[in-house]
Amino acid sequence: MRMLRVDPEHPEAAAIAEAAAVIRAGGLVAFPTETVYGLGAHALDERAVQRIYEAKGRPSYNPLIVHVADAAQAAELVTSWPPAADALARRFWPGPLTLVLPKRAVVPDAITAGLPAMALRVPAHPVALALLREAACPIAAPSANRFTELSPTTAQHVAKSLGDRVDVILDGGATSVGIESTVVDLGGPRPRVLRPGVISRAELEAVIGPLADDAQPTEGDAPRPAPGMVDRHYAPRARVLLFDAGSRDEALREATRVISGGQPVGALAFGSLPLEHVRIMPRDPRGYARRLYAELHALDDAGCALVLVERAPESAEWAGVRDRLERASR
């Protein structure tokens, strides 16, 4: 594994050229996006795509997101580019939005877990965009971590999780969004959110009108590619216990039990708790998302066996954070 430090705003051409050559040759490159670090491979090279699954220990039924340099490249990979795709791409790309559309035959079935549609996005990170342009090919890139584990928001998280399973890591510093993209399926009668993120349902509906119920297919719909939808996902090594005002005392009793057994306990909360490893989290959803995985990585590094997490608010803007916390706690 080779670590290449790059300027996150103006990545050095030599490092990008080296990483792009690895991609074109069928290798694996971890690189920063605005959401999390991705584990990238040439999306049209089936053997390279299989290397992603092997490196992550990811089951073949879990599809991948393909990253492209612009909307024009995305449209070349799908059989239809409806007005909703054009409107959303104009508004949110580059950015943390993934669109699901019917794929062309040139896209390997391994990308979509054998399903007829694929997931696409244009990342909003100078390093990712430079790599895509230099490689001159679409890049499949799920999060650069072992399957179901915490997503990485720094190059050091990638190295800790994957080590020599990856050929090159482009270290562009910490990511700015912090959780994975919003995924929108455009293949049904009405667009539908398959995975929430920092782009909210209200923001999407302001562009393309009412959406179908989240992740609820209508009768006759085929299964859709939905990366990150397994029950337990985005999880630290520590057990995660969610609590609210009504269950706070019970959660603290469980923490006391674990501590009395000689194991550290951490917490993510909006206010103080009588524990050693407490991270006070922002009360705005984007600020919280930006810090979420980094704080959970830090609590894992501190050896915490249990992490108490105060439940996020129920408002729509917090849907992406709530989704990650619920899956981490299963």
**Total beta strands:** 14
| Rg over C-alpha atoms, rounded to the nearest angstrom | 20 Å
Measured distance between first and last alpha carbons: 32 Å
**What is the mean predicted local confidence, pLDDT?**
94
Helix-strand pattern: EHEEHEHHEHEHEHEEEHEHEEHEH
Q: Please state the overall shape, judged from the principal axes of the Cα atoms.
A: globular
What order do the strands of the largest sheet run in, or round the barrel if closed? 1-8-2-3-7-4-6-5-9-10
Percent range for β-strand residues: 15-25%
Largest sheet: 10 strands, mixed
Task: Please describe what this structure looks like.
The protein is α/β, with parallel strands linked by helices. 33% of the residues lie in helices and 18% in strands. The protein contains 11 helices and 14 strands. It has helices at 13-24, 46-56, 71-76, 83-92, 109-112, 126-135, 155-162, 201-208, 248-260, 285-301, 319-328; strands spanning 2-5, 29-32, 37-42, 65-67, 97-102, 117-121, 139-140, 168-171, 182-185, 192-195, 239-243, 265-269, 277-280, 306-310. The strands form 2 sheets. It has a 10-stranded mixed sheet, sandwiched between helices. It has a 4-stranded parallel sheet with strand order 11-14-12-13, with helices on both faces. The longest helix is centred in the last third of the chain and has 17 residues, at 285-301.
